[in-house]
């Protein structure tokens, strides 16, 4: 997305953001994925994943909101397991 020419992003949920807002948001998601992928691959149950992420780094909690959605969490598990 950052390869496109734009100034503002209007997400389907949340507040409008500028192009410069996307860098930190992307870093936050990347940190969550890198923290969560190993526990998923090692068999951590879905109901324990968020607690494990928070135990690893409490600052990730604000960015891990998307994992609180059952549909998104299921998708994350599927993708993480198939990427082994």
Kindly describe this structure.
- The protein is mainly α and 84 residues long.
- It has a domain at 27-82.
- It is built from 3 helices and 2 strands.
- Strands 1-2 form a two-stranded antiparallel ribbon.
- The model has no long low-confidence stretch (mean pLDDT 80).
How would you summarize what this structure contains?
The protein is built from three helices and two strands, in the order ββααα. The protein is mainly alpha-helical.
Task: Itemize the secondary structure elements and their pairings.
Layout: E1 8-9, E2 17-18, H1 19-41, H2 46-56, H3 70-82
Antiparallel strand pairs: 1-2
Helix pairs in contact: 1-2
The neighbouring-strand order within the major sheet is: 1-2
Average pLDDT value? 80
- The total strand number stands at 2
Strand content: under 5%
Q: Structural class of the helices, strands and pairings? A: mainly alpha
Radius of gyration: 14 Å
Largest sheet features:
2 strands, antiparallel
Question: What low-confidence regions span 5 or more consecutive residues with pLDDT below 50?
Answer: none
Give the ordered list of helices and strands: EEHHH
Helix content: 55-70%
Query: What's the tally of helices?
Result: 3
Shape: elongated
For the terminal residues, how far apart are their CA atoms?
26 Å
């Amino acid at each position: 997305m950052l390869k496109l020419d734009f100034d503002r992003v209007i997400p389907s949920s949340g507040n409008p953001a500028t192009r410069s807002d996307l860098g930190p948001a992307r870093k936050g998601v990347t940190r969550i994925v890198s923290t969560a992928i190993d526990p998923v691959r090692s068999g951590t149950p879905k109901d324990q994943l968020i607690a494990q992420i928070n135990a690893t780094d409490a600052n990730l909690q604000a960015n891990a909101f998307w994992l609180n959605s059952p549909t998104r969490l299921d998708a994350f598990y599927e993708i993480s397991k198939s990427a082994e």
